[in-house]
């Protein structure tokens, strides 16, 4: 498991493009036939990708966690971003996940296994995990059952639909909050006007981006922004002091996940566009 140490906003202004990318951007998480995980010291976040093909993949612990099994003291959200269906087996129970379906797995589940229905078109599981102080039941949340929150407009190039999987009004968890946003065709901006929330760090996974397209992710304090160029299935880690917004060369989808002091989805410190620098 790779260890990622976050920079603070004092070091941040002096960082080169490559240093910014090495510190805040995760690439190559989704590799056929493997699980790749990264441990981030910020809020003890674990971020990963699992792409089972011909054989099942087991969620194993790591020496860095100092635990007997991965979920001994953790919870995890599993989102299928692949076009292929798959099954997540938790103990003796199996849960089938289609595109943008999610499975929450609480603390204390020792055995977790990922499979794909078709090795040629595998499921691609995005994994987001935080420490947990109590047990919550395993629960599946299907995209088709979620209410779409419609925001933005074509005039402001940010027409989008937000769906919440894990939050105070949906699947219950200790601290994990998780959902996704789909931008309409012709729209490109997300999270604009931007915001910060020092109470929680946030993780963005961008996907549905064609190979020749990119998303320009804006980050940093509102008065000293920088940007990262994001390709398909890449992840940005956003500290509480940083805005997290972006614009693409075309529409795309992203999964947002948070962990920290609270689970209030609307706990945000808004920033006016005119104040950005």
The secondary-structure class comes to mainly beta
Biggest sheet strand order reads: 1-3-4-11-6-9-12
Number of contiguous helices: 1
What is the CATH C level class, in words?
Mainly Beta
H and E order: EHEEEEEEEEEEEEEEEEEEEEEEE
Going by CATH, the homologous superfamily would be: Jelly Rolls
How much of the polypeptide forms β-strand, as a percent range?
A: 35-45%
What can be said about the biggest beta sheet? 7 strands, mixed
Low-confidence stretches: none
Structural domain tally: 1
Q: How many β-strands, per DSSP?
A: 24
The overall pLDDT average reads 96
Q: Mind telling me which CATH architecture this is?
A: Sandwich
Give the end-to-end Cα distance, rounded to a whole number of Å.
Answer: 36 Å
Helix content estimate: under 10%
CATH domain fold name: Jelly Rolls
Brief description of this entry?
The protein has one helix at residues 17-24; strands at residues 2-4, 25-26, 34-40, 45-51, 57-58, 74-80, 86-90, 93-97, 102-105, 112-116, 125-131, 139-141, 149-151, 160-166, 177-183, 189-190, 195-196, 200-207, 215-220, 226-230, 234-238, 243-248, 253-260, 269-270. It is mainly beta.
Can you give a write-up of this model?
The protein has 277 residues and is mainly beta. It has one domain: Jelly Rolls (Sandwich), CATH 2.60.120. It contains 1 helix and 24 strands. The strands form 5 sheets. Strands 1-3-4-11-6-9-12 form a 7-stranded mixed beta sheet, with no helix packed on it. The chain has a 7-stranded antiparallel beta sheet with strand order 2-21-18-23-15-14-13. Strands 5-10-7-8 form a 4-stranded antiparallel beta sheet, with no helix packed on it. Strand 3 and strand 4 (45-51) form a beta hairpin. The radius of gyration is 18 Å and the shape is globular. It starts with a strand and ends in a 7-residue tail after the last strand. The mean pLDDT is 96.
